[in-house]
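note to self: dont lose this again. the chain is below, predicted strucutre after it. 115 aa total, dont forget to put it in the shared folder this time
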Amino acid sequence: MGAERADAGEPQWKQRITHTEINGRRVNEAIERGDGGSTAVFVCECGHLGCNSTVELGIAEYEEVRTDFNRFLVLPGHEIPEVDKVIERHPQHLVVAKRGTGAQEAARETDKRTP
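---
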């Protein structure tokens, strides 16, 4: 089952937000793989179209965000309450989880780390 089918029960605007966040996560996964240093500049994984905000984090800090398929890195103020639940607050970033079964399934299906 593809991500488009997993969240088919969600309103289209929620699907768009979820997939925008998933795309941000894909960018950060590539940044993490290619960096090789102890810190990197990561993009905000929020659902706001056109967001190009970044945050410098240690690779280990980003790994803490990515301990579960349903966790995303966003900058403070970029969370979308209808889609995101803030589960951790840090000075430079937030960790959010998807609300709703469809969004969670889309996050799971597109996470290469989830077996």
